[in-house]
Design goal:
Layout: E1 3-7, H1 11-22, E2 26-31, H2 35-40, H3 51-59, E3 72-79, E4 88-98, H4 103-116, E5 120-123, H5 128-137, E6 140-143, E7 169-176, E8 189-195, E9 199-208, E10 212-221, H6 236-250, H7 255-259, E11 262-263, E12 269-272, E13 277-278, E14 282-284, E15 290-293, E16 299-300, H8 308-326, H9 333-359, H10 364-372, H11 385-395, H12 404-407, H13 410-421, H14 425-444
Parallel strand pairs: 1-2, 1-6, 2-5, 3-8, 6-15
Antiparallel strand pairs: 3-4, 7-10, 7-11, 7-12, 8-9, 9-10, 13-16, 14-15
The chain binds flavin-adenine dinucleotide.
Amino acid sequence: MRNIGIIGSGIIGLLAAHGLRKAGHQVTLYSDRTPEQWLQGRPTGTAARFDLSLQLERELGLNHWDDQVHWVEGAHLLVCPAPLNRLLTLTGRLSRAGQAIDVRLQSHRWMMDLAERGGRIHIESVTVSRLEEIAAAHDLTLVAAGRAELCQLFERDAARSVYDAPQRQLAMMCVKGPKMRFDGLPLVPVKFNAFPEAGEVFYIPYLHKDVGPSWNVLFEAKPGGPLDRFREARSGEQVVEIAKGLFRELLPWDADWFQSAELSDPNGWLVGAVTPTVRRPVGRLPSGREVMALGDTVMSVDPIAGQGANNGSKQVRNLLECVAERGDRPFDAAWMSATFERFYERHGQPTYAFTNFLLEPITPAARELLMAQYGSDGRRGNQSAVQRLADAFTENFNDPALITPVVQDQGRTRDFISRTTGGAWFAAFARGGLGVARGQLLQKLGLDPKHPPQRV
Ligand SMILES: Cc1cc2nc3c(=O)[nH]c(=O)nc-3n(C[C@H](O)[C@H](O)[C@H](O)COP(=O)(O)OP(=O)(O)OC[C@H]3O[C@@H](n4cnc5c(N)ncnc54)[C@H](O)[C@@H]3O)c2cc1C
């Protein structure tokens, strides 16, 4: 049994705490919030998770909300190259559904679970000098403090960190009112609208701590663009009002759906930005003692691909394996680095690449894939070639290693289209292109483009 200290009671600190506790280790969690304070505060993010993450939560007995959530069954993507021009859609099914639970509800419950399962909990805001004491008293100290000040202990990895400034201005809101399904869509998706000039807007089925099944809506605005209107908002009500205006202006196809939206609770919103950053996993304290970073503290990504918490969960699974393999040997700096590298190679790098890929202008390869899948409708049991392509794209949210390397390379993308459709890539591309051209013509005539599956 090892003695392990963890700073931070967000998703990742708590997953690590439960996993290590289950493996028989003594765990002490240091949190600046009590379970009650979690319920009173602001969420740290949306944190929709896909199956690889949910599997870990099931193994740890933390999946308390499975019979209450509206499962995320897939993704519906609409690409609008110019305002109001609905160029194409993708509707893909996940092989196993995902879910988004209010992180405040989750941390509240998981902290209480930890105490029941023999974990120790200290409520305090840990300073660097206190971290010295904690590190001295434990075999391993994990810092899962999110993007808070303690992350400065860990040097930014300049070679891996592609950006030094946020790529999007974010506005996130928990809303009740809009119905839980979309007419004509055969699944409950993350509904994703991409405006290459302006940014992205997406809505995620969400289990809110007070109102239950509802929505979490996220605006990802390119700085200075038409979606970048939330910077001055001072309340959640203002955020929702600004969002309603933007729906009417830029997303009229969903404006009626959003019209009834009201803030789910006064704290259920965020406005800000994330600088996508990879840090070194080992932090050296003034005494020379070493602590290890976990979750957003070591790697924070823009939420555009819904990957931060998923990525942290994959770190935790890797950590649990590495701790088990370490036996009684010390958790030294070399072990911390090797542990992170093992995760980074398998999951971290593809996740970072996938997220950055969505932040950047669409590549010719991705354009070909989107054209080739055109016609996907997400219907259960649809085994058509276009559906297989759309499903493969959607599954990448669960495991970004699946096709991120493919869509970064035109040759591999064409090969992937051929293999998945069982025909020439160009035939699939041309078929999709014809459908897209038909939608463009209909819009020119002032008609609905009639994209699959019918509604948008
Ligand atoms: C708008 C938005 C939407 C998102 N959507 C998604 C999504 O759909 N899917 C997804 O996977 N990810 C998403 N993310 C990212 C996801 O929310 C984060 O990756 C995840 O919550 C990080 O968890 P964490 O435990 O590492 O950090 P946090 O959730 O930030 O938790 C860290 C905790 O440590 C505490 N703490 C900090 N400093 C101290 C200290 N000195 N002493 C004690 N405690 C301390 C903090 O109070 C906090 O409670 C989103 C993020 C944002 C901002």
